[in-house]
């Protein structure tokens, strides 16, 4: 019995070694070499010593935070509404559907919509505001990033709300809670795990967005993702690129632990 | 009724095509223990949900202390519920669960503390304040659910099959505790169960329900002794039900024999059903018997023998006897006229009560 179990895990372990462990080791290894192939710590020194990289780090975190906040604000009410509707599986499918379409395709679609002669500007002209510069602004970057991330936020929150025992809501009302009190004291605390999962699923990838920063943001927003791409493809400074990668990975691990489930020991005290 | 607290008039509830409740009318008095008894799916929970305000009646009015409350939201009603699945908040510990309602009312911390401790003492859970809900047993959870409800001092407490998840021993103990608690608090309990023994043991008044209707309402003894129809007779305890014919007042024919009985007020030759409870049947010799049966099985139950038998016409007879007999033997059974209860087909509860009253008055006059 035991033997078979290990046998079935072979593909997974192989996958893990080839595509997770090996690249990680390579990135860490690379980060200790400068552009001339010498073993050194200078990449790290430069990263933490220069204002440019620190500003980029701050930018990445700041925009990831805004994108996550916008996504959460839209997703929680949507997920709640979804859980109350009659054909929730159908609605859910409609929300998941866009995630099956390639990111680049969606980006190009938005370029079409936001461009000078695009649908958005036609609409602005129609209501009398006149054409605006929409593409290549921070606003459009946040909007499109949020659009892309929303399904990943809705899904875990929806699942958490859907699993919530409806008699808990009745119990809360029964004990005298208003709708708002029921939400803040029962529904939200009990769906917090879904929110955390959603924040993880959105915040971490948002840290290293780079396609959108260029195509939609017009490089008005420079994040660590952009920097990594530049180092690998343009300046060919793989060492520096890897260093930024290591920093990002460490940040992600920290966030995962911060938002991860913690086993509650005993009751929290008043 | 002097202190009616709740009144349902013409209440019905429709879910799509199904009528969960058809024409429910009843009044509940302050301070009594009521039980809704009926098989699963008969609409018991629906009545509680309408009372608590979780769902609206499709038609009819619900009154609380003389005021219509159809549109009053659940959080404004002086009614609390003990849910079938307890519905304890899993993110709060025992203390915070019980304190939930009081905290919402912005009660002073010190008062909350006193009341929570007292409520937990009442349900015998002192010392469990800091436990998480996942750390206590089903029976303890059920008691937390009761404490969480009564700490708010409601006028009416609704309990939806709260004992169904407990094992037999704890269940009997909790039945006694709940009954005592109700008497101590002096508030109205509306208790839901599908267990007739539980209903008989605990209630001041029972409503027997089936398929969205209340079939009969009355004190446990009345319902047990004078069930209105086949369904009630069968549901409330074990019974022998056979077809018969009313020959005259106080005379009924069963299986070709004429017997004296205690019922009257029916048409001559009216076809009826006759109920005799197994504990009212006494084993005797064939020559003294009112009916003769052949014993099929005999099971010793500790206090009695449970004897299954059949007569020549093929009717089954269940007998509870303190004396034993032998399988395959022909035995006589004997019963008194009062042990026979005659039921008419399709008689409404109103007509039933009126008929009983008419000849019970007669009987009183004769004495
Ligand atoms: N939310 C609902 N939607 C549709 N039908 C329901 C709903 N709740 C209850 N019912 C139906 O109403 C009837 C009565 O249900 P219920 O009051 O829960 O019965 P009980 O508590 O006596 O078992 C059942 O036939 C049930 O299927
Ligand atoms: Mg029920």
TrEMBL record, chain A:
Keywords (A to Z) from UniProt: Cell membrane, Membrane, Transmembrane, Transmembrane helix, Transport
Membrane association type: Multi-pass membrane protein
Segments crossing the lipid bilayer: 12-32, 61-83, 90-114, 134-158, 237-260
Domain ABC transmembrane type-1 intervals: 57-259
Domain of life the protein comes from: Bacteria
Membrane is among the record's keywords: yes
Family as reported in the entry's similarity comment: Belongs to the binding-protein-dependent transport system permease family. CysTW subfamily.
Name of the protein in its database record: ABC transporter permease
Organism of provenance: Loigolactobacillus jiayinensis
């Amino acid at each position: 019995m035991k033997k078979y179990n290990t046998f079935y895990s072979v593909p997974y372990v192989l996958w893990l070694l080839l595509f997770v462990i090996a690249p990680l080791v390579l990135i860490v290894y690379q980060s200790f070499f400068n552009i001339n192939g010498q073993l050194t710590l200078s990449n790290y020194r430069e990263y933490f010593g220069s204002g440019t990289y620190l500003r980029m780090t701050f930018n990445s975190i700041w925009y990831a935070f805004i994108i996550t906040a916008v996504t959460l604000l839209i997703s929680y009410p949507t997920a709640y509404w979804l859980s109350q509707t009659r054909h929730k599986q159908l609605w859910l499918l409609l929300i998941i559907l866009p995630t099956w379409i390639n990111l680049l395709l969606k980006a190009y679609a938005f370029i079409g919509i936001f461009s000078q002669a695009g649908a958005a500007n036609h609409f602005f002209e129609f209501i009398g505001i006149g054409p605006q510069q929409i593409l290549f602004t921070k606003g459009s970057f946040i909007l499109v990033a949020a659009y892309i991330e929303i399904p990943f936020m809705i899904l875990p929150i929806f699942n958490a709300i859907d699993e919530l025992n409806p008699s808990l809501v009745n119990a809360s009302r029964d004990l005298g809670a208003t709708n708002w009190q029921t939400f803040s004291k029962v529904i939200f605390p009990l769906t917090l795990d879904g929110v955390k999962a959603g924040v993880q699923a959105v915040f971490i990838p948002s840290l290293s967005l780079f396609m959108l920063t260029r195509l939609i943001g017009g490089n008005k927003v420079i994040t660590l993702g952009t920097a990594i791409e530049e180092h690998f493809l343009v300046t060919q400074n793989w060492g520096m690129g890897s260093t930024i990668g290591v920093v990002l990975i460490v940040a992600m691990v920290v966030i995962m632990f911060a938002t991860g489930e913690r086993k509650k020991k005993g009751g929290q005290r008043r | 009724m002097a202190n009616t607290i709740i009144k349902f008039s013409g209440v019905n509830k429709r879910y799509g095509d199904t009528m969960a409740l058809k024409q429910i009318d009843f009044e509940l008095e302050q301070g009594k223990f009521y039980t809704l008894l009926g098989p699963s799916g008969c609409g018991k929970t629906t009545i509680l949900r309408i009372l608590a305000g979780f769902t609206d009646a499709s038609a009819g009015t619900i009154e609380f202390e003389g005021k219509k409350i159809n549109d009053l939201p659940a959080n404004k009603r002086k009614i609390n519920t003990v849910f079938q699945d307890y519905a304890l908040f899993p993110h709060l510990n025992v203390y915070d669960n019980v304190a939930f309602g009081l905290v919402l009312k912005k009660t002073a911390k010190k008062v909350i503390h006193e009341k929570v401790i007292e409520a937990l003492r009442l349900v015998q859970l002192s010392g469990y304040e800091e436990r998480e809900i996942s750390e206590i047993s089903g029976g303890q959870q059920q008691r937390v659910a009761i404490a969480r409800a009564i700490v708010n001092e409601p006028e009416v407490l609704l309990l939806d099959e709260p004992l169904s998840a407990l094992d037999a021993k704890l269940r009997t103990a909790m039945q006694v505790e709940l009954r005592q608690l109700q008497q101590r608090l002096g508030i109205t309990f509306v208790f839901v169960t599908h267990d007739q023994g539980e209903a008989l043991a605990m209630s001041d008044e029972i409503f027997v329900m089936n398929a969205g209707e209340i079939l009969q309402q009355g004190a446990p003894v009345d319902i047990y002794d004078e069930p209105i129809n086949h369904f009630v007779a069968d549901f409330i305890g074990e019974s022998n039900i056979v077809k018969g014919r009313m020959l005259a007042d106080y005379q009924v024919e069963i299986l070709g024999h004429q017997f004296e009985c205690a019922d009257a007020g029916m048409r001559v030759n009216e076809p009826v059903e006759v109920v005799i409870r197994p504990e009212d049947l006494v084993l005797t010799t064939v020559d003294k018997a009112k009916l003769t049966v052949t014993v099929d099985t005999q099971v010793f139950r500790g206090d009695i023998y449970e004897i299954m038998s059949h007569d020549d016409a093929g009717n089954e007879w269940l007998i509870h006897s303190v004396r034993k007999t032998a399988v395959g033997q022909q035995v006589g059974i004997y019963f008194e006229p009062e042990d026979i209860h005659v039921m008419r087909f399709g008689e409404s509860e109103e007509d039933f009560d009126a008929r009983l009253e008419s000849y019970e008055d007669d009987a009183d006059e004769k004495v």
